[in-house]
Amino acid sequence: MSSGGIEGRIRLRRPRETDYPVIAISVDDWWDGKVVQGLLPRLWFRHFAGTSWIVEPDDGRPDSRPDGRPGNRPTGFLVGFRSVADPTLGVIQAVGVNPNQRRRGIGRMLVEAFLSDARTTGIQAVETVIWPGNRRALPFLAACGFEPDPDGQPRLIHGVPAIAGYDFGTEDRARFRKSL
């Protein structure tokens, strides 16, 4: 799938395990130096490729090199899946866009591709969790139609309903949800 509406031409495709090394060396920089690489292990690109997306430049080169490595450097990705515990729920694990490519609609394109997949498989809602102080993700999620999920989020952290110690007992998270 290609898009000409975003500045330059880009291609939206499913990730491959071979995309992992490029994403792994970039992801911490894409999150402004916050260490998140450990939250995005290779298994996401191996086992959840069918429900995830990558955006890369569409410069006319083949989709991959003869050795199977990606032909282009990804400019964005979304890792998501259908909940095993609740098949009516989709979960976005991570969305990342190269900081030099932000504000061009790439993140929204990734989310919309995931939501489109979700609708076709009977998913009724999608959720994601973020650090409640993430001032980039909060307006992005709101612009994509996500709302704070107040269930189980007993206190305000950084002014957002959140769960203290949600991850690892030390990392606060706010859960956001979008009904489909």
Quickly describe the structure.
The protein is α+β, with helices and mostly antiparallel strands.
Summary tags:
180 residues, alpha+beta, Aminopeptidase, ten-stranded mixed sheet
Low-pLDDT regions: 1-5, 64-68
What is the ordering of alpha helices and beta strands? EEHHEEEHEHEEEE
**What CATH architecture label of the largest domain applies?**
3-Layer(aba) Sandwich
> What do we call the CATH homologous superfamily of the largest domain?
Gcn5-related N-acetyltransferase (GNAT)
Round the Cα radius of gyration to an integer and report it: 16 Å
Strand content: 25-35%
Write down the overall geometry: globular
State the end-to-end distance: 23 Å
- Note the main sheet: 10 strands, mixed
Write down how many β-strands occur, each being a DSSP E stretch of 2 or more residues. Answer: 10
How many discrete domains? 2
Mean pLDDT: 83
Would you write up a description of this structure?
The protein has 180 residues and is an alpha+beta fold. It has 2 domains: 1-78 and 102-123, Gcn5-related N-acetyltransferase (GNAT) (Aminopeptidase, 3-Layer(aba) Sandwich), CATH 3.40.630.30; 125-180, no CATH class. It is built from 4 helices and 10 strands, in the order E-E-H-H-E-E-E-H-E-H-E-E-E-E. It has helices at residues 20-30, 43-47, 106-120, 137-143; strands spanning 2-3, 10-13, 53-57, 76-82, 89-97, 125-130, 147-148, 155-157, 160-167, 171-179. Strands 1, 2, 3, 4, 5, 6, 7, 8, 9 and 10 form a 10-stranded mixed beta sheet that branches. Strand 4 (76-82) and strand 5 form a beta hairpin. The longest helix has 15 residues, at 106-120. The chain starts with a strand and ends with a strand.
